[in-house]
Amino acid sequence: MSKTKVAFYAPVDIEKRLAAVAKIAASNDLLEFVLVDLDKTPEENHTACEGAEVFITPNIVTVNEVAEGIKGLKLIQTFSAGTDELDKAKLLNLGIKVANNGGANAVAVAEHAVWMLLTVNHKFDKQIESVKAGTWRSGVPGDLTEFTSLVDKQVGIVGLGRIGSRVAKRLQGWECNVVYHDTIEFDADYVAATGASQMPLDELIATSDIITLHVPLDRVTEKMFSTEQFKAMKNTAVLINTCRGPVVDESALIEALRNGEIWGAGLDVTEVEPIQPDNPLIGMPNVVLTPHTGTKVIQSDWNANINVVANAERVAQGLEPDWVVDPV
Asked: Is 181 a catalytic residue?
């Protein structure tokens, strides 16, 4: 039986990651891999990858031109949850579907989001900085009223998918009220397992003490949180964003923080990455920033490697791939 050809690219340690993926694939022996070299011309990669049915790759814009010219390509399989850099509509017109990583990093991002909401409300970042600076408690700014626990607070989750649902599950037992909004109608058992209650988005925005965003970036969600939403939030509320920077209108967020329309923010993502050194968010005392590392645990890589192989093998077996992301 002939093997299914798979184009492969990874931006860091490509040989090492290919070895890890190939080791997983070896048990079924359905796949053969060819490396994509983005330092070469698209035409050179088209020739090298001709006949590949799957292209395993990160979510980067330069992949589009390579993928469009691979004859016989059926699936772009990303290592990431995000697929926003890929022109899914154009690719689908060429018969190429795009699939994400099937929640490989969902636990890591959920944990990161929970850490962020706790850090903003307890100022853990300022406490750590103060000890390291030798200023002990005197280096921790703010009145006692600026420190608060989750008890009796409402946490609003926007997007109850693989990550949002895990945030909800991790907040069970914290004595807070967890609500959610999603455009998808989930199975009742799925929702029940999260412990969250459904709520219209405008009501969630107006009544939540903490709002945490877990949606994909597309034309619908771009800048879904802007001036109108910030004005509707409580002035004691905190916004957490661990999905994609452009989901939040950053200029509007900065103004809302400056004007006291909301209390604080925890951001693992920003509109421009890396964040520019003159960005006002960096100097704001009630903003916690991390460098888009919410996925950064070893288990995320392990899970992603397993999932990309599983989906490639589905294609090799003539089955429909999982985790396909539709153009929006």
From this structure: no
